[in-house]
Structures are given as structure tokens and as C-alpha cells.
Design a protein that fits this description.
Elements: H1 3-22, H2 27-37, H3 44-53, E1 60-61, H4 63-68, E2 71-73, E3 80-92, E4 98-112, E5 116-118, H5 134-144, E6 148-150, E7 160-162, E8 166-169, H6 175-191, H7 201-218, H8 226-233, H9 238-243, H10 245-259
Parallel strand pairs: 6-8
Antiparallel strand pairs: 1-4, 2-5, 3-4, 7-8
Helix pairs in contact: 1-7, 1-10, 5-6, 6-7, 6-10, 7-8, 7-10
């Protein structure tokens, strides 16, 4: 495969991703984001309260919020205490008897999703298919760049992490998902450990996932709405994607070419 062929493949995949973003969020993504919107953003103090009472909590909400989502707190479950603000009105005689707001705090109870039952929570789409020999090729591309590839010391909840010269991938992932995650982290390695890296995490995640989408498409994996869902969840958008197109296209082209036997140029490595 020539570099120009790889570039054409990358161009087509980028056009598909841009079209997916411009067409709006999928129904499943809309449900997912609506669900997330119902969970309040908790203060540091409340996060500490939640962790001290239920260290394994993942998604918490009040009794009525769960009910509106089609889930119900199981009988006998003990609530998690947090502190919630209340706005009260109080007469202020020095201000012509106008009411002035006063904030008071009270203890309220929330429940983790594990304490509820009912309708399943929607999840973002995932990559499907079989990368076949491309997964081993990708691993060789990574190590050929002098990047250590291992399965160690992953943060909780992360499937992969790029550390600058080292990529860690969670053990036990399905091949298609492992391929996509590895490309995502390789994109971080190639783009985001130098002095010119974008300062915004949203831009960095948008670029890395767009590269993963393009490369997955190039080898025939079924990405569905996975990449556009992921980018929306990280609050990226079509404008962010457009601003990064050159970097995304260049990096995806290099990885695609390397998978077909053309060496990746190490110009982006840290």
C-alpha cells in the first residue's frame, strides 16, 4: 500500500465520522446523555461522603430520580447520606420588607444503581467485528516505535492509558475493542506528549478517538456510532473535529500505512 492510498482511506473514514456527528446524536446516545443529566454534579465533600459509605458506588441518584428513569430502590436498601442546599426566603426589614434568599443545608439520601432494579441503563455503542491479524500487526507497530506495551497499573475504569513511551491496555478485552483502544492510546502517544499538544482534554480525546474510528473503519471493523458517541460524551463537536482534521488525518494515515507494511514516521513522538 502506498501512502496516498492510506490517505484516501483515511479521508473516506473521516467523512463518515463527520457525517455521523453532523446528523446529530443517535437515539441511544440521547437516552444515555439524558440519563447522565439526571445525576447531579456532586461537590468534593459529597463525593467523599459517598465513598466513605459505599466505596464501590458508580451512579447515585435520589429515590424519585431513579423512579423517573424506570428503576426502583430495592426493599431494605440503606440510603447514602449527602448534604444538599436549600434556598429559603427571609424577610429583610432593612430592605423594605423584601424577601432575601438564605441558603441552608440538610442531609438527604441517594442510592447507587446497584441498590436499584428495573429498566436497564443505556450504554454507548461499542466497536464490533474481528481485527484478525491486524491486532498483532498493531502491537508490532507500537513496539516498533519504541513504545512499551503492557497490561499493568491501569487506573480504575480505564481500558487503556498512554503515559508517553508506554501504553497499558486492560487484559481480557474483546479483540475489536482492544484494537480500538490500542489505536486510541497510540494516537495519544503520537500527538499528545510533545510541547505542541492541545491544552484541552476535549480536543485531545476527540483527536484520539477520531483516529481510532478512522483506523477501525480502514480495516473493516464495525464502529457504528461508537466514535461519535464517545466524542459527544467528552463534549467534543464537529467544530472541534474540524479544527483537528489535519492532525487526525496525518496520524491515522501513518497508522494505516504501518499496518500494511509502511513504516510510521516517528515525527510526532515525544
Amino acid at each position: 500500500m502506498k501512502a496516498e492510498q492510506a490517505k484516501k482511506i483515511a479521508d473516506r473514514a473521516l467523512e463518515q465520522l463527520a457525517a455521523a456527528l453532523e446528523s446529530g446524536r443517535s437515539e441511544e446516545l440521547t437516552r444515555y446523555l439524558s440519563m447522565l443529566a439526571k445525576f447531579h454534579r456532586y461537590s468534593v465533600g459529597n463525593v467523599l461522603l459517598i465513598l466513605s459509605q459505599m466505596p464501590d458506588a458508580t451512579h447515585v441518584a435520589g429515590f424519585n430520580t431513579w423512579r423517573k428513569m424506570g428503576r426502583f430502590v430495592k426493599k431494605g436498601e440503606k440510603g447514602i447520606v449527602i448534604i444538599a442546599p436549600m434556598v429559603m426566603r427571609q424577610k429583610d426589614e432593612s430592605a423594605d420588607d423584601r424577601d432575601r434568599p438564605i441558603i441552608r443545608f440538610r442531609a438527604v439520601y441517594v442510592f447507587d444503581v446497584s441498590q436499584t432494579e428495573g429498566d436497564p441503563l443505556p450504554e454507548p455503542a461499542s466497536v464490533g467485528g474481528d481485527p484478525g491479524e491486524h491486532l498483532d500487526r498493531l502491537r508490532r507497530v507500537v513496539t516498533g516505535l519504541g513504545i512499551v506495551l503492557d497490561q499493568d497499573d491501569l487506573p480504575m475504569g480505564a481500558d487503556g492509558v498512554s503515559r508517553g513511551g508506554r501504553i497499558s491496555i486492560r487484559a481480557g478485552l474483546k479483540p475489536a475493542h482492544e484494537f480500538s483502544v490500542t489505536v486510541h492510546e497510540l494516537a495519544h502517544e503520537l500527538l499528545h506528549h510533545g510541547d505542541d499538544r492541545p491544552g484541552s482534554k476535549t480536543v485531545r480525546e476527540t483527536e484520539a478517538e477520531a483516529v481510532a474510528f478512522v483506523v477501525c473503519q480502514a480495516i473493516g471493523l464495525d464502529s457504528g456510532t461508537a466514535a461519535s458517541d464517545y466524542i459527544h460524551l467528552y463534549r467534543g463537536d464537529t467544530e472541534t473535529l474540524t479544527e483537528s482534521l489535519e492532525r487526525i488525518q496525518r496520524t491515522a494515515t501513518e497508522i494505516i500505512a504501518a499496518l500494511h507494511g509502511v513504516a510510521v514516521e516517528p515525527s510526532h513522538t515525544a
